Amino acid sequence: MKIKYITKQGLWLLLLNIPFCLFSQQSVIHTNATSDFNLGLELYQNKAYRAAQKIFSVVKNNASPKSNLVADASYYSAMCSIKLNQTDADKKVLTFVKNYPASKKKNKAFFNVGNYYFANKKAAQALKWYQKANLQGLSKENQIEINFKMGYSLLVAKRLDLAKDKFLPLINDAKYGNDSRYYYGYISYKLEDYGIAESTLKEIADNDSYKAEISYYLLDISFKAGSFERCIKVGKELLKTAKRKEASEISKIIGESYFNLNKYEDAIPYLKAYRGKSGKWNNTDYYQLGYAFYKQKDFINAVSYFNKIIDQKNAVAQNAYYHLAECYLNLEKKNEALNAFKTASEMSYSLSIKEDAASNYAKLSYEEGNPFENVSDVLQNYLKAYPNSKSYKEINELVVSSFIHQNDYKGALDYLKKKKNNENINLSLKVSLYRGIQLFNEKKIAEALSYFTTAKKSKTNKISKKAGYWEAETLYRLENYEEALSKFINLNNNLGSLNKADFPLLEYNIAYCHFKLKDYDNATLTFKQFSAKNNINKTIIDDTYLRLGDSYFAIRNYEKAIRAYKVIVDNSGLDADYAMYQIGMSYGFQDANKSKVDALTKVINNYQISSLKDDALFQLAITYTMLNNNKKAHQAYYRLLEKHPKSVFIPKALVREGLLYYNQNKNSLALKNFKRVAKEYPNSSDALEAVRNAKNIYVDEDKMNEYVAWTKTLSFVEVSNSELENSTFAIAERKYFEGKIDGSILSLKKYLRNFPTGKNSLKANYYLADILYTEALYNQSIDKYKTVLDAGQTEFSEDALAKLSQVYLQENNFNDAEPYLLRLEQEAYVSDNILFSQSNLMKGYATLNKNEAALDYAKKVLSKDKLDNEVILDAKIIIARTAFKTEDYDTAKEYFNTIEQTADGELKAETLYYKAYFLNTEKQYGNSTKIVQDLIANYSNYKYWGVKSYIIMAKNYYSLEDAYQATFILENIIKNFGQFEDIVIEAKQELKTIKENEAKTNNSVTPKNK
Questions:
Q1: What is the pLDDT of residue 21?
Q2: Is residue 407 a contact partner of residue 438, using CB atoms and an 8 Å limit?
Q3: 0.85 surpassed by pTM
Q4: Rounded Cα–Cα distance for residues 36 and 41 (Å)
Q5: On the chain, which terminus has fewer CB atoms closer than 10 Å, C or N?
């Protein structure tokens, strides 16, 4: 029985009830396979693919296996899978082909699947299925269709040659002809077969479907054919109706046409109207606009486009960098020009540009300095590369000057040795002077001496005299005072009146040599003569009067000493407290004890910060004793003991006050003082004196048993006299004072071996340590100094603390030096030792990043009256560095600016770096860059700060929208300065940031993680 024909309305009602109605109720569903197949086919044709697929499955199960219905049902079931985008659709089609290889629907299946994917814009999948089909098995109409669609799919896959072959036979087809002709012409255009492209596209140029695109292609073909005038004319017409995207491309062609016709002014507005590919330009785009501005001599705008060209090496880039350098020169930006010439000189696309750029790079390196290479190397490399250059002679003459200009005096001397001639020999003597001064300033005093001696041979009077002065100064610093004096006097005698103005401190130096040699008569004459000079620094004049007073004091001419010291006191000069103290001592030696008391009292009361207050109190107590004013003497001793418990005078004060008590018949108080000294300062000479004085009290009181019992508790006292010990020590001590080094060492070691705890063991250990230290046997001296210091505060402890600290500091071992420096600070009597301890604690804590402690000691150091300029700089730089580390930028900036005024060498380079840093943070980019250029030009030997400052310069340039300079600098840092790991890491991060940012607008830039 046949099924009635189902209307569309009935069909959709039926679909709504599938699967429940159609497949569940057998009374409704016909079992006749043919009827079912027809029903499925109708559903398929009405795009009810899921319902149709169900029907076809029923047909496959119910129809006779030999029936064609099974094959047809399998075919349509597979087609339903394709339409429904089921995951196993491909397999179902392939299974159908495998099961029914003779089916006429096989090619149709491939064709239909391909069409399905093609309609859904899945060209790659469509092509795969089209290629399975046997075209001979398809109708002529289907063959034409599949060829067209395969051509398009190949075009999408960018297989242009194959696509072109598919379209060619179809260009005259009624249905696909115009499309095929368009695609054939387009592919020819892309394959740069412009003749075929032009002739093909012109045939359909008036077709509304392709008119806009074809007009652009024909315009571009004309451009590539060099028909620039036509491009301009046609392009301008097209712009009138072009859409925005088309207008951008057309403007580019018009702009480049003007550019190629050398009509740069006309080219500019059209080149600027170009929007780029996906909103991005490439390096060629930037070059053309930059060059157009360059030809108009609009160098500022030219730079703004040229400097966007980064991250590529090609002929365009080489030309761009060369012209960029020329623009910078015209804008008087020589440092920037140097970098651009360097980049152009490293490319070989144009050898003439390469050589000319190298020549300019060499000359600018000499003029402006070079942060990445030694200027002398740049110049010499140019001479090697271009021996026949017109610039050869000029650049050859710059080599030696470059060494001197960059303060590379060692390099200059090495170069001059290789190029010996009379002119170079005389020049080498001049350079030797500069090298010596450089080493002297670097504290390589001994190494500097030979350079000054050599420079004295110069035939140039000014050079030889300067060398002689520095030779004498060096000998003085090496403590060879006799030879230094001889050199200074010889120089003074041979100077003309005009030359003496060049050495204003010569007499001062001569006077100091006399002073150091203890020739105080000549010292007084020379200091007095120097003090009469005008225009001398006040600090020097103050020091002159102090040393004049000291010299008079040493020869016991106390009246003149007092007059010299009073000059300082009356003018509140340098070390006025010391001058006042010396005035008091001078009165004392004149037996004017009341005047002495007055002066010493002023030291105590008038000078808030003075290291001489304990000295003054001690002398005041002694003086009051001499004046029989025991009450005030005791008051002075009490104040000394209370206010200055770490003073070196404590044991002596206790002994003297003990004697005062003894003379007042206050034996118990006297004995208390003596026992305290013996306990707290064992092995010291004061302790031995205290024991002797205590013995007198015990004898007076007939208590010798108590004395013996007490002395047995003291390791440094033997009641019985040992002549052997005394004799052994006396021999060793005599050799020590006679300067017999080897004999002293043997004798002192012998004494200490036989009498390790003898009464002279403290002296013996100190003498031995002193000799070992003097002989530079530092490690051997350590234990001896420690033994001296274990005895507590003695007459030797201050020197031992200073020397032991110095031993550890020489080894850069601050941790071991620290406790001794701290103790020296508390116990030192000599102001230089206090300063030594505080300044080294300051530097040590700074090295350990103990910022608060470093800052405290820096402030302590700066509170001193008399400071060497070097110490002042050390303190200020530590305050500046510490403030920067703790982000106190205002303080850091203030101190770095102050330091800059007097700093030189590496410290100057460091201060300039921070100056540039702060200017950058204040957005004063131009001024910041000028500071960096100054640093590079004048302090290039200090590579770390130069390279570090270049990071700031790169940031400055990028902030000023000069991407080329920024990337050039950062890339050269990474390339050339791997030894500065921290700087390279920072440079890589900055470069990565810049390139990521530039890649947003420049297709030629490819960010990389370097």
A1: 39
A2: yes
A3: no
A4: 9
A5: N
